[in-house]
Amino acid sequence: MNDLSPSYHYQVIGRALQVIDAEGPSLGLEDLAARMQMSPAHFQRLFSQWVGVSPKRYQQYLVLGHARRLLAERHTTLGTALAAGLSGPGRLHDLFLTWEAMSPGDYARGGAGLAIRRGWFESPFGPALAMATDRGICGLGFAEAIGDPAALEDMLRRWPKAEFVEDPDTIRPMVEAAFRGEATRLHLLGGPFQIKVWEALLAIPSGHVTTYADIAGAIGHPQAHRAVGTAVGRNPISFLIPCHRALRRDGGLGGYHWGLPRKRAMLAWEAARTGL
What we know:
Elements: H1 6-23, H2 29-35, H3 40-51, H4 55-62, H5 65-73, H6 78-83, E1 97-101, H7 104-108, E2 115-121, E3 128-133, E4 136-142, H8 148-156, E5 163-166, H9 168-179, E6 184-188, H10 192-202, E7 210-211, H11 212-218, H12 225-233, E8 246-247, H13 260-274
């Protein structure tokens, strides 16, 4: 793997996260680069290529308090967003996603009769397992925290009766376009309640966050915090359906199916790119 690949960049960031957690954000560039076994110039170049800001500024986004600051300063009110038609089968906040949902009957049949192509790809956040039907991307997971076999098993069991075909070449154009922020179609494969939750997630702009309680209120089930949390955790299209933008009411990160370090990195990556 060459130094310019997105996955290589994220591997560096992942190691830096561990060091920053242990040492704090005051660690200087030279010391941080040394922990990565790189020269300061090389380390700074990788940071700039990956996220577009200096390591020092990015460290500020990675500290645990950043989630709380986001909640205080960039808290999206989902009820307003949904009422304004900012989600649904049209262009969304990020201006490149369109989606459609499977029917409740198809979901109840466990994906029977559905052909799903799959493949492994590089992404800005490490190795990614992508899946797609003829209607669009239906699955996206990250393997670094649990390993490739476990990630594959996790995704396959979501639709136990579907026909899975390893065919990365066919779905590569749509997957790579999605990571470049270009026009992308999604096919939401879930139950009616889950799809309502994922629709609410799609209304959260990049660089903003919301709470599980707000999601519950926005979909008309204000007491269903736990069920909402479960649906967020079962989101099959990570990053593109931005479950990483859902936080606890107190500003805590909450959970993340693919590991909290990746959730923090996604929030920091988006905040840095949107200048928040």
